[in-house]
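Subgroup meeting minutes
Present: P.N., E.W., G.H.
Scribe: E.W.

1. P.N. recapped why we're keeping a running log of single-chain structure predictions: easier to compare across weeks, and new members can see raw inputs and outputs side by side.
2. G.H. added today's entry (306 aa).
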Amino acid sequence: MSENKQLAATLKSQDTEEWLDIYFTRPLGLLWARLFNRFGVHPNTVTVISIILGVAAGVMFYFEDIWLNIVGILLLIWANIYDSCDGQLARMTGKKTRLGRVLDGFAGDVWFFSIYFFICLRLMPVWGVWIWVLCAVAGFLCHGKQCALADYYRNVHLFFLKGEAGSELDNSRKLSAEYQQLRWKDDFVWKLFLYFYRNYTASQERMTPRCQSFLRTVREKYAGIAIPEALRADFRSGSLPIMPLTNILTFNCRAIILYISLLLGLPWIYPVSEITVFSVLFLLMRMRHEQLCRNLEESLGEPGNT
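Output recorded in log:
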């Protein structure tokens, strides 16, 4: 298999990939994936290593020394390459698991918790308690929702593009049923992961009422049969222009703003950008996607029960 074909085989979809990922992160991730595959390293192990690297990056951002900040930036870039590598390795080896998906999402949350925490410690002598308030709003009320919704819209796009096998679109009701069947005594670790993952999925669904109604209508109307190609094409046509917004609201753009703020010696710029610029883009993305789902549902006839 040629280099380009092997790289393409480890991507989720060209529709949902960012330029920086295609030409930088994914190629480097593929090199690491080949190396890890040669030594039989499991994708989840790579994810755990990325968590350690991301937390270490956050520690480096505590210091005002620009060279230590640069070390932190390099560590976070390395962590992100491994975050790409774990998924590429999973697709390369067929070791894709839901636990791996949960760990993958958890990794990014841990990185940025560390980043926010150490930025707060760094700025507390000047800002006092207000830096903790600023970062709490930026992290919990803005960043978390932005990433969750962007991730969800990508998976809805992949669902219509590739079907259930090609996406990681989950349903909180099914996850709840699975959670209830497990026993803490026998399945403690998985039940604990499933508890958080179910709540994460439910939060995504609460933010997308028109999308949920549309998905219910599609599943009821085409139960047991394939979704028509015309509907798939219509959804892709409407969703594709929204994908750049989902990409902005994931890792690369916010990381670039973080890096610039640190190099300028003004790390407070990063949480402020989360509350302002990224929040506006989040609302625009949600509005456009909800309108798309409303229009497509109306084209199918009666909306699903909400």
